[in-house]
Specification:
The chain is globular, with a radius of gyration of 34 Å. The longest helix is centred in the C-terminal third of the chain and has 25 residues. It is built from 39 helices and 32 strands. Among the domains are: 182 residues, tt1808, chain A (Alpha-Beta Complex); 158 residues. It is of the alpha+beta class. Helices cover 41% and strands 15% of the residues. Helix 9 runs parallel beside helix 19 and helix 25 runs parallel beside helix 26. The chain has a 9-stranded mixed beta sheet with strand order 15-14-11-16-17-19-18-20-21, sandwiched between helices. The chain has a 6-stranded mixed beta sheet with strand order 1-4-5-6-7-8. The protein starts with a helix and ends with a helix. The relative contact order is 0.05.
């Protein structure tokens, strides 16, 4: 029996022997925790008593502070944490409380966990242990069985200890079992996470307010309407949060709705709040608009009533600012517009629709970025030395990065001051033993001195300010706020209008100099040029005194074809020097960040991971390599950081310092795309090697600004350099052709609806036809010359292309389009599809038909996207789509080249030196032109070359023969012969490139 199980057995025995005593009402909950619950979780591997001596921030198990539940205080008993992040809660009751039947304990637990966004938590009186799914929206009227997914009586703890340990032991959490258990309950009826519910709630409030304000105030413009709605919501929410934090009297807002004229009363309340807080949220000196509008009582009363217990499931004393940020990030994806009849409608913003949605950055990613930027600059320094640190997010959104950066600085200052509380009695105050808080004055000073942000969306700016100001008020009470006002005539909050500003970070007033001024005022409003050197607002002073120390964030990812207007704005400014084709908008943000950084400053973004090899990022790479030092690169590879987006991401950390000497980059790559979140989060907190994340130092040569950036270890780099040195032939641009753009191979159900004709069936062709369709159409002799054999990956495999094609292509090139009347059957056929042909595919013609020489004679087809390099040799007419490139060089035997290209050596090169999207190779023109091909230079290499050609011919011949073989055992023999020939080719290629056995091992294990 294990030591842990012995502990459980002893606890069960003691409890059973004395159950009558424990079941009495005078047996206290605190006794139960000390005598049973603490020991129970020690057996599960948790450091309940903090024997490791970890700081308050990183203790594994803590007792939560008192919180308000429905106007009353309740202290949850335990929070179990990894790296300072809560994983689950445990709420205890006396054994005399029947937790199976009494609904109150279950409601308390579920409400607390739901507001904290904790998926599972435990309720126990030791007599019984109940596990609750806390993603279910809590309701005080629910039976205690609602959401209860596991119940174990104490007599079964021994027999079911393995099951309990499997999910709730510390080891289970670290290995992901807890996560998997939590996710296995996802989709259960009633499951709704707090941010999803709250988002639906505030979107409803926005719609109701927008419609009512638009109807009652018909003179308002769209921007004015959005402003009024946002400000009203922010003010109500701010004061309601202050109530649950005991800064404002509880139910003050609700009491305003007891009689009529609610908005007038609210305005008085808002003005009083300005006198108390001076936050900018209630700034009626600049806001002359919201005081003049009319809002119906019914709308306001409905919104306010849903913010209170028991109608409200929310507890704003524990609903974290980070969760509010997540909600508001989604909220910002929509905007109010006015119809011609001045009715308000809420709809998704065009830029959000184009980008495929709004993606909130997970907290562990934000914390990693902050730790590796701000953390590096403040470590070991006194508050005095870092008081002027300038931190910027130039696309701040709802303020996620700025709030957590501010939190990091608050924690750092507190940790520093509490080491010597007597010396810093003006900076901190004690609330209980070993617990200290920063004074409001210090919190305000840090915010004003250190935190700065810009966003083009005025709503985002207001939400960022709201979130930061709520952070200032953490730990404040009504008494402390009133005391400041009474004793020091100092209001509780700073005005941060000069810190968090609205504007286009990438577009300054040079936009007006390079564009024709028109009377299109609405367009100018959308552009929102922002001048960084505008001295009266504070940023100009920062730039004059040395620029920013840290720039962090999650910039917008958008290609030019989906954001033409935004790109056009930037291209009309001085930022146009950073523009190139096929780039992404976020590249501009990094170039701007580097320009705004001071020497020795840090820059870090989470963004797409393909910029290191993408052709459209060459200007970005050059700037990064020329002006900064790349300190670390964390490649998430195929792991989905943003759960609803398929994009592959990374985090880089740059230091603004010039160097011309090669240096090492700390490289990380997630190699398990299903890695548990808590494992990943723990890795960020305390980096360590494991089998789910690769980590090594990779050398960067900053002088190679015209090449892709490659991350490899020292041994791999040596092999790659050797391969490169042996290359004496490179493909030229003219040697590589593109496949044909084909609109649609076959008609879909969607097309049938457009065509509305019984003549076509799903699967019939447009440009791509089957033989029976060609026969049915009846092309004449002239037209048949335009019917070309069409091939796909079904026929074009590695080495071998099957000449027996299934499909044919109507090669309707420019000549056909110009003389369409000479091709009556093609005209008739394609004319039927006019309704579904896009502008790219002119009626009767395919888009960019390409030069026919690439599809005739000897050639090699390269599959552009593949997990393993695949090159096909053919010598018959063969037309393909853009899924392929066609290689047709002069001066090299194409069968020899096919063998080289399909070798493990070239696959190794493409994996490390080519382009990749995660683990998928992108074999485009640039990687092909960079391939170091070896042409024979002596008799020995000529012999090897001929042997490679013979092996390629052998593979092709066997593959052709296999088409007629029907016996499995014969096919197996032939497959093994093909494998033998492939191995022979690899051996000859290694010899040609002079690769030794130790280097071969690196190549064959290097993917």
């Amino acid at each position: 029996m294990s030591e842990e199980l012995k502990i459980i057995e002893n606890l069960v025995t003691v409890f059973k022997d004395n159950i009558e005593q424990y079941s009495k009402s005078n047996y206290k909950e605190a006794q139960l925790r000390k005598e049973f619950v603490d020991k129970f979780f020690v057996a599960l591997g948790w450091d309940v008593n903090n024997d490791q001596g970890l700081s308050e921030k990183y203790k594994e198990v803590i007792n939560e502070d008192a919180i308000r539940i429905g106007g009353k205080y309740k202290a949850p008993d335990y929070a179990f944490r990894i790296g300072g992040n809560r994983v689950f809660f445990v709420e205890t009751k006396k054994p005399s409380v029947n937790i199976k039947a009494d609904p109150d304990p279950a409601f308390q637990l579920k409400r607390y966990a739901w507001n904290s966004k904790i998926p599972l938590s435990i309720l126990t009186n030791f007599r019984t242990l109940a596990v609750y799914d806390c993603k279910i929206k809590p309701n005080a009227k629910d039976n205690p069985s609602v959401g209860r997914i596991l119940v174990i009586d104490y007599e079964d703890y021994i027999s079911k200890f393995v099951r309990i340990s499997e999910f709730f032991s510390k080891d289970a959490v670290l290995k992901g079992s807890f996560d998997r258990f939590a996710k296995s309950k996802k989709g259960k009826k009633g499951t709704t996470e707090v941010d999803d519910v709250f988002l639906q709630e505030i979107e409803t409030w926005r719609v109701d307010l927008a419609k009512n304000i638009a109807r009652n105030n018909p003179s308002l413009s769209i921007s004015e309407l959005n402003y009024c709605v946002q400000e009203t919501l922010n003010r109500i929410l701010f004061l309601r949060i202050c109530e649950d934090r005991s800064i404002e009297p509880y139910e003050r807002l609700r009491n305003l709705t007891n009689s009529g004229d609610v908005y007038s009363k609210l305005l008085i309340h808002f003005e009083n709040a300005e006198n108390k807080y001076d936050s900018g949220i209630f700034d009626f000196k600049n806001d002359k608009l919201t005081t003049s509008i009319s809002i119906d009582d019914s709308v306001l009363s409905k919104i306010i009533s849903t913010l209170y217990y028991p109608h409200s499931p929310y507890d704003f004393s524990i609903l974290s600012i980070e969760i509010l940020g997540n909600v508001y990030e989604q909220f910002l994806g929509k905007n109010i517009r006015l119809t011609p009849t001045h009715k308000a409608k809420v709809e998704e913003k065009p830029e959000v629709r184009q980008a495929g949605g709004v993606y909130y950055t997970p907290d562990y990613v934000v914390d990693y970025i902050i730790k590796n930027t701000i953390g590096q600059l403040v470590i070991g320094k006194s508050p005095e030395k870092i008081k002027n640190l300038k931190i910027l997010d130039l696309a701040s959104g709802s303020g996620t990065f700025l709030v957590r950066a501010y939190s990091y600085l608050l924690d750092y200052h507190l940790s520093y001051y509490q080491k010597n509380p007597k010396k810093y009695k003006k900076e901190i105050y004690q609330v209980k033993e070993n617990q200290w808080h920063l004074t409001t004055e210090v919190r305000k000073r840090i915010l004003l001195n250190n935190i700065f942000g810009v966003d083009i969306d005025p709503q985002a700016v207001e939400i960022t300010k709201l979130s930061l100001l709520l952070k200032v008020l953490e730990n404040e009470t009504k008494e402390s706020v009133n005391q400041q006002l009474k004793l020091f005539q100092e209001r509780a909050l700073p005005n941060i209008d000069a810190n968090i500003r609205c504007g286009n970070s990438l577009v300054d007033s040079s936009y007006f100099e390079q564009t024709i001024l028109t009377s299109n005022i609405e367009k100018i409003k959308r552009v929102k040029p922002f001048d960084w050197k505008d001295s009266d607002k504070g940023f100009g002073k920062i730039l004059r005194e040395g620029k920013f120390d840290v720039i962090i964030g999650n910039p917008p990812y958008i290609k030019e074809d989906k954001g033409r207007e935004a790109f056009d704005w930037v291209k009309r400014t001085n930022m146009k020097k950073y523009y190139q084709k096929y780039m992404d908008m976020w590249y501009f943000f990094t170039c701007k960040s580097i320009d705004l950084l001071k020497k020795g400053g840090y820059h870090s973004f989470i963004a797409q991971n393909n910029w290191v090899t993408s052709d459209g990022a060459s200007i970005l790479r050059k700037k990064i390599l020329s002006e900064t030092k790349l300190l670390s690169f964390f490649d998430f590879n195929e792991f989905k950081v943003f759960k609803d987006a398929s994009i592959q991401t990374m985090v880089f950390v740059l230091e603004k310092t010039k160097t011309t000497e090669p240096y090492d980059v700390d490289y990380y790559k997630v190699i398990d795309k299903k890695i548990p979140i808590d494992t990943l989060r723990g890795y960020f907190e305390l980096p360590k090697k494991n089998d789910k994340i690769m980590n090594f130092n990779s050398e960067i040569d900053p002088t190679e600004t015209d090449k892709p950036i490659t991350f490899v270890n020292i041994d791999t780099r040596k092999v790659l350099k050797k391969i490169f040195s042996r290359g004496n032939f490179h493909l030229k641009k003219a040697d590589i052709g593109n496949g044909i753009d084909v609109l649609q191979d076959f008609i879909t159900k969607k097309h049938l609806k457009v065509l509305k004709s019984p003549e076509f069936e799903k699967g019939d062709g447009i440009f791509i036809l089957r033989k029976n369709e060609i026969k049915k159409i009846g092309f004449n002799k002239t037209e048949k010359k335009k019917i070309k054999p069409y091939y796909t990956s079904e026929e074009l495999a590695k080495y071998y292309g099957n000449p027996m094609n299934k499909y044919f292509l109507i090669y309707a090139d420019l000549e056909v389009r110009s003389n369409i009347n000479n091709y009556p059957n093609i005209k008739n056929h394609l004319g039927k599809f006019k309704k579904i042909l896009t502008s790219d595919f002119k009626p009767y013609g395919i888009h960019r038909p390409r030069k026919q020489k690439y599809f005739e004679g000897e050639k090699i087809f390269s599959l552009r996207k593949t997990t393993q390099a695949s090159f096909t040799y053919t010598d018959f007419p063969c037309y393909v789509s853009r899924a392929f490139l066609i290689i047709k060089p002069i001066g090299i035997d194409l069968k020899y080249l096919t063998g080289i290209l399909n070798s493990k050596l070239i696959n190794f090169w493409l994996y490390h030196m080519g382009k990749r999207q995660g683990e998928q190779l992108q074999v485009d023109k640039t990687p092909l032109m960079n391939l170091p091909i070896r042409l024979s230079s002596d008799q020995q290499e000529n012999v090897l070359k001929e042997e490679i050609v013979q092996a390629v011919e052998g593979i092709i011949s066997i593959k052709e023969h296999m088409k007629s073989v029907k016996l499995v055992n014969e096919l197996d023999v032939l497959e093994r012969k093909v494998l033998s020939l492939q191995n022979a080719i690899d051996d000859r290629v290694y010899s040609i490139y002079n690769i030794k056995n130790t280097e071969i091992a690196i190549i064959e294990n290097g993917f």
